[in-house]
Amino acid sequence: MIRRVPPTEPFEVERHLSKNEALHGIHPDDTYLKPGRIPHIWCPGCGLGVVLNAYIQALKAREIPQDRASVISGIGCTGRAAGYLNMDTYHTTHGRAIPFATGLSLIRPELSVTVLSGDGDLFAIGGNHLIHAARRNVNVKVICVNNFNYGMTGGQSAPTTPLEARTSTTPYGNVEHPFNLVSLAAASGAVYVARWTAFHARFLVESISEAFMKPGFTFIEVITPCPTGYNRPNKLGAGLDMMKLFREKSEIHHGLDPNEAELDLKRRIVVGKFVDLEKPTFADGYEKLMNGDPKRA
Amino acid sequence: MRFWRLPLDAKKYSIPVGELHIIDDRCKGCGYCIEFCPNGVLVLSKKFNVKGYHPPEPLPGKEMECVNCNLCQVICPEFAIYSTLKFSKELSEEDIERYNELVRQRRKDFHE
């Protein structure tokens, strides 16, 4: 005879809200953030919060619901952004954010797939994935946060560290030439390329919301202050001092050739929208092929 | 442009007045909102929050100068500040005079 165990009755558990959870819901943007996760781990004066905020404002501006948006991020300080958003997000392996995003955007074309990751993730270890995703023109929105170093691991020199800058692995000055990220993305075939700084928060919101409406591979570089990793060895002050530097040195040049978009903290930072063109996306071409294009028959 | 009297169509326009909401315990004291507020409404307070930072507070006497532009909300990395519309006030002679003063100041700064 089988002994039947009565189903356990659910009982009331007194849930103790943590302090962070109790604070959740006070701010109007808290619907986009996971309960109890804010305050985030980023340093005081870090520009990553501004980028996350700008992404949320852009979602609000375009009225994209949370279940129609997805954020994919790699490893690094910026990679933590996926954990804070209250939507379908992926925190993927190092440098492989774009392959995950490519797969997701092909299988669910109605989703707005955004890759929110850092310069070390997208251009150092994931450089090849980025250029080939741009070449194929897959429908992925890339927001690359450039803070000139590997912030999370302790401020080592990255492919974007300017010449002669000091980092923890280049204490006498960096001898490697940095990448020009916008130029690389434009040469690889991105349909929308822009560069902003954390100071240009309103422009950034506008740019991200413009990219949401653009089918194809869009690339937005955001220059942010890194008060702990990059500013300290280079004597650039706190995050606010770096923001003042951005205000002083940045020049807006829309439609400039990305090769001439200079990024030099001592001379000038060229920001603006550099490339905006129309191209058939990878999914379009594939669908045409599957449905039997009369020209090919 | 400077005005020499209250414009005749002043009744068509109004100045929004915003109410600031600051979540003290989320602030990490980066100072972005204080530096970039277009009207200079905010100032670093002397009080401490839970984490030991000084959160911002409206400058005493300048609370009514917030125009609800929401720049502080957009630029705050910590989701700790936002503003809502309190009411809209009508244009008065004082506002025009203050605007003229601002233009004069800006012109002076530009030439220097």
List keywords for this structure.
heterodimer, A: 297 residues, alpha/beta, Rossmann fold, two-stranded antiparallel sheet, 11 helices, globular, B: 112 residues, alpha+beta, Alpha-Beta Plaits, two-stranded antiparallel ribbon
Question: How would you describe the overall organization of this protein?
Answer:
- The complex is a heterodimer of chains A (297) and B (112).
- Chain A has a single domain (42-290), classed as 3-Layer(aba) Sandwich (Rossmann fold), CATH 3.40.50.
- The mean pLDDT of chain A is 91.
- In chain A, strands 2-1-3-4-8-7-10-9 form an eight-stranded mixed sheet, sandwiched between helices.
- By secondary structure, chain A is an alpha/beta fold.
- The longest helix of chain A is centred in the first third of the chain and has 15 residues, at 48-62.
- The termini of chain A are far apart.
- In chain A, α2 (48-62) packs across α8 and α5 packs across α6 (127-136).
- Chain A has helices spanning 19-23, 48-62, 81-84, 97-107, 119-125, 127-136, 181-188, 201-212, 227-234, 239-249, 282-290; strands at 69-73, 88-91, 112-118, 141-146, 149-150, 156-157, 192-197, 218-223, 250-252, 269-276.
- The radius of gyration of chain A is 21 Å and the shape is globular.
- With 112 residues, chain B is α+β, with helices and mostly antiparallel strands.
- Helices cover 26% and strands 22% of the residues of chain B.
- Chain B is built from three helices and four strands; from the N terminus they run βαββαβα.
- Chain B has a two-stranded antiparallel ribbon. A two-stranded antiparallel ribbon of chain B has the order 2-3.
- Chain B has a single domain, classed as Alpha-Beta Plaits, CATH 3.30.70.20.
- Chain B has helices at 32-36, 71-75, 93-111; strands spanning 14-22, 42-44, 56-58, 81-90.
- The longest helix of chain B has 19 residues, at 93-111.
